[in-house]
Design goal:
By secondary structure, the chain is of the alpha+beta class. The chain has three domains: 8-165 and 275-341 and 620-670, no CATH class; 173-260, Calcium-transporting ATPase, cytoplasmic transduction domain A; 377-496, Calcium-transporting ATPase, cytoplasmic domain N. The chain contains 24 helices and 22 strands. A hairpin with a 2-residue loop joins strand 14 (440-445) and strand 15 (448-453).
Length: 676
């Protein structure tokens, strides 16, 4: 993935808005070397100079019914117009030279041709050529073009402001724990392994893990998750998120380029700079429009001369064609949607690495989910307790098992302990504790020896699996009283379906998308999950290296497939899919084979992504239709095809329509929203 390198130390410095204006405008080729501020200043100064140009123009005086004349008035008019042309028109003249040098004539070439023809013809009339001057049209045209470019650049920059907002999430200072002291240092000086204190209400300066304290942290600006996340010892935190109500001590794990925020900024930059098929199409259309406009402009000029009109009229018609045809709206139609959609996506936890894949998300006909950790929680949950001895009730059975498992880190042990904590069970003293690798645990609880055994170990002890547990798909552990070698109880544990999964699947099905599941689990587990969620189908007992083949199977049936996985063991399947989506990667966004990365593990974000992809594509198409349709109608009018009906567009009015078209495209792009 090619992207600009981002130095985290730069993030922590105060933002230089003028510099940022310049840097962002550099990224937009036709505005190279100019900032929003430059166009704004040139617009106001040129507008001020246009007032005397209008007052001294004979046509304006005649139209408004007043007269101002004095010796040399035409030369004064020429002087003011020259300043407007060379000062206000300079960005367009320089831009046209760059376009011609790169053999890519475009909108700057068109504007330059229009204003140059107007200026030099009017200047020739001033110094003796017969005809009418239209300096007023030249000046108003330049004013309108400057205004249009100013508003256009401001729109483009508004879309890219998300990068600045992300940068501002990092605080300047951090409270470093150094021995018994706490000292404030610059965030840029933090190193991996440093321990810092985050007070309530403060921003977290870098990625790390909580080593002391408990609090809720607001990560909404980074992940789109509106609900504050609970953080305690062992929890990972992201730099830029906001600590809410408790103090935390955090051990720094990532700094600089390696941090989540830095990676997100680089991804957004890379995605905004990348070109999709739609954008390439728009660029080609803009190029050909320029060629057509110049050709039509020349043809218009020659035609009107041949029809007997004077040179002033012919020049005015040709200039109007060139102005009307300026493909600003076309050139902005896709890039602005790209910039806005990528920034909005990042703010909502949808990180786009491949623009084409994102646009293609509208074509998805089948979504294939990896099961564990995506549709399910990815962790064991105690779902049922069985009792096989009248002397033990469920509470006592759970208390004994949880006491045995309290010091174990095994996922099954954690699930049993968590259930006991949720029910308020009393943990009992354990002696002679011993973990039996791969089989279970044993120990004395209240002087009675117990074993917590796997099904295999249960058989080794000569005990049979109860009939009601023989057909279950759940993972089961058994509590045995060792001295009597009798079964006391059993605990069924399952990787439960996430609450969000059903809503996600309902949303996808509502959009007419088929939903499949891919899992390495046994067929019984897959069948139960599939039936619970109402899936269209599932692949069970699939090894990681076989997942790619399952995606191929669906593609061969004509399905446009999105694969949703964790980005690690699902890498071949993600690469094979038409759209590869890495989910549940948390702060690790380096899923190289995925086209799109979802920060949260919420399957509902898949539905959001697809619908946002559709909305983004619609905006692009709407903008392209408007931009090209406008030119199809306006260019013939500018050439004068309806002249016999007294319907003509002046160059200045043409510039108004051209700028209006650009602003409509920008406003339409800005109405794009992520609905989650």
């Amino acid at each position: 993935m090619n992207h600009e390198h981002h130095n985290m130390s730069n993030i922590t410095q105060p933002v230089d808005h003028a510099k940022m204006d310049h840097q962002q405008s550099q990224g937009y080729s036709k505005h190279e070397g100019h900032s929003v501020g430059i166009f704004k200043r040139k617009f106001y100064i040129s507008l001020g100079l246009t007032i005397p140009v209008l007052v001294l123009s004979p046509i304006i005086q005649k139209f408004l019914g007043f007269s101002i004349s004095f010796y040399g008035d035409m030369f004064v008019l020429f002087g003011f117009s020259s300043v407007v042309f060379f000062y206000g028109g300079l960005p367009f003249l320089k831009g046209s030279l760059t376009e011609i040098k790169n053999k890519m004539p475009g909108m700057m070439t068109l504007i330059s041709l229009a204003i140059a023809v107007a200026y030099f013809y009017s200047s020739a009339v001033t110094f003796g050529l017969s005809g009418e001057v239209f300096f007023w049209e030249l000046a108003t045209l330049i004013d309108i073009m400057l205004l249009g470019h100013w508003l256009e650049m401001r729109s483009v920059m508004g879309a890219s402001r998300a990068l600045e907002k992300l940068s501002q999430l990092i605080p300047d200072k951090a409270h470093l724990v150094k021995g018994q002291q706490i000292i404030d240092i610059n965030t840029s000086e933090l190193k991996t392994g440093d321990v810092i204190i985050i007070k309530p209400g403060e921003k977290i300066p870098s990625d790390g893990v909580v080593v002391q304290g408990e609090s809720f942290v607001n990560e909404s600006m980074l992940t789109g998750e509106s609900k504050p996340m609970s953080k305690k010892v062992g929890s990972k935190v992201i730099g830029g998120s906001i600590n809410e109500d408790g103090s935390l001590q955090i051990k720094i794990e990532m700094v600089g380029e390696a941090t989540y925020l830095s990676k997100v900024i680089n991804l957004v930059k890379s995605a905004q700079a990348s070109k999709s098929k739609t954008q390439v199409l728009a660029d080609k259309a803009a190029f050909w429009l320029t060629i057509i406009a110049v050709s039509v402009g020349v043809a218009t000029f020659v035609t009107w001369l041949l029809l007997g009109k004077d040179i002033a009229f012919a020049i005015e018609r040709a200039a109007t064609v060139l102005i009307i045809a300026c493909p600003h709206a076309l050139g902005l139609a896709v890039p602005l949607v790209v910039a806005i959609s990528t920034a909005l996506s990042a703010q909502n936890g949808l990180l786009i690495r491949n623009r084409t894949a994102f646009e293609n998300s509208r074509r998805i006909s089948t979504v294939v989910f990896d099961k564990t950790g995506t549709l399910t929680e990815g962790t064991f949950t105690l779902t049922k307790i069985y009792n096989f001895n009248a002397q033990y009730n469920q509470d006592k059975t759970l208390a004994i098992a949880a006491s045995l498992e309290k010091n174990s880190e095994h996922p099954i042990a954690r699930a049993v302990v968590k259930e006991a904590e949720n029910k308020g069970s009393k943990f009992l003293g354990v002696k002679n504790f011993h973990a039996i690798k791969g089989k279970g645990t044993e120990g004395d609880v209240e002087e009675v020896p117990y074993i917590l055994a796997s099904p295999g170990f249960l058989k080794e002890l000569g005990l049979n699996i109860p009939l009601e547990l023989k057909q279950t798909s759940a993972t089961v552990v058994y509590l045995i009283e060792k001295n009597e070698n009798k079964l006391i109880g059993a605990f069924a544990l399952s990787d439960v379906v996430r609450l969000e999964s059903q809503k996600a699947i309902d949303l996808l099905k509502k959009e007419g998308i088929k939903v499949w599941m891919l899992t390495g689990d046994n067929a019984q587990v897959a069948k139960e999950v599939s039936e619970e969620l109402g899936l269209d189908g599932y692949f069970a007992e699939v090894l990681p290296d076989q997942k790619q083949d399952k995606i191929k199977e669906l593609q061969e049936k004509g399905e446009f497939v999105a694969m949703v996985g964790d980005g690690i063991n699902d890498a071949p399947a993600l690469a094979q899919a038409d759209v590869g989506i890495a989910i549940g990667s948390g702060t690790d966004i380096a899923a190289e084979t995925a086209d799109i990365i979802l920060v949260n593990s919420n399957p509902r974000d898949i539905a959001s992504l697809i619908m946002f992809g559709k909305a983004t594509y619609r905006k692009m198409v709407q903008n392209l239709i408007w931009a090209t349709g406008y030119n199809v109608v306006a260019i013939p009018l500018a050439a004068g095809v309806l002249y016999r009906y007294d319907l003509l567009l002046t160059p200045a009015l043409g510039a108004v329509f051209m700028s209006l078209s650009t602003i409509i495209v920008a406003i339409n792009a800005k109405t794009l929203k992520v609905k989650k």
